[in-house]
Amino acid sequence: MKGKKPIYVSAEMNTTMEKLWGYTQEPDIHTEWDARFTEISYLEKKEGEPQKFLYKTKIGFGLEIAGEGESIGEIRKETGERISSLKFWTDNKLSLIQIGRGYWKYTPRKEHIHFETQYDYDTRFGRIGNVIDFYMFRPLLGWATAWSFDALKLWLEKGLHPRLLIRRTMTYWLVCFLFAFVWMYQGIVPKLVFTHSEEVKMLSVIIGSTEYSIFVLKIIGLLEIIFGVLWLLPFPKRKVFVVHIFMLIALTIAAGFTNVASFTEPFNPITLNVLLMGLSIVGYINSTNLPSSKNCKRKRKG
């Protein structure tokens, strides 16, 4: 397909060359941080031949894709630069990738190692395979490569194991999805769709007009929907969690001011808001040192 570009990812690693080389060349360590592979095993190396290996990738539902590959490492003594060239292929008909090739490059700089990869591949399934690759698979694979590079960086520089980072990321996004659901539901159901009488009554105490309260309630509903959608957007939300806690405190006080009897009802504002504040704290704790593909460069300079 025209316009198809190789996948390129680079990152600056504040570590030693030997440590980075080991974390990327040892199969058991490699699969710990690389989201693209489930298992890599080296075959016995014969003198004068490339290092051959087998790889497996689980794709869910008990299915996996297995393939083969070979790599050659090169050290340029004059610059200290290292390059690992590789070729990989599979006969598995489930795999969109038929055969691919690429490299890893390790370039020493003053205070860090510039680590980069570039690879490309041929696809199966003719034109349909090209379309799926261009619009879905290639962007996903590029994202997974960049995410994995950042996970490796956090492991090398801060000692945070990728399994911990995955749990932290899942917890963070679970909290975000729950908040998105709660706020969008609160905006749509009791405000825009049904205009709940208790909501109107509580707002009328503050505004003093039932008719005007209905209009304001619709506006609040729209704002709550927007706030819910905000939780789904991919940007750092550490400060948003703090703002959210103060918002919930203010809403709890407002609920008590307008209808203190609501605090005695089942699933009342206190129990709901305290629960949401607790989730905000969980989200806040898990919002630091999250791997992100945005932390890596995806295009070459120039």
From TrEMBL:
InterPro entries: DoxX-like. Keywords: Membrane, Transmembrane, Transmembrane helix. It comes from the Bacteria. Pfam families: DoxX_3. The chain crosses the membrane at residues 172-194, 214-233, 240-258, 270-290. The keyword DNA damage does not apply. The keyword Transmembrane helix applies. This is DoxX-like family protein. It comes from Bacillus wiedmannii. The lineage of its organism: Bacteria, Bacillati, Bacillota, Bacilli, Bacillales.
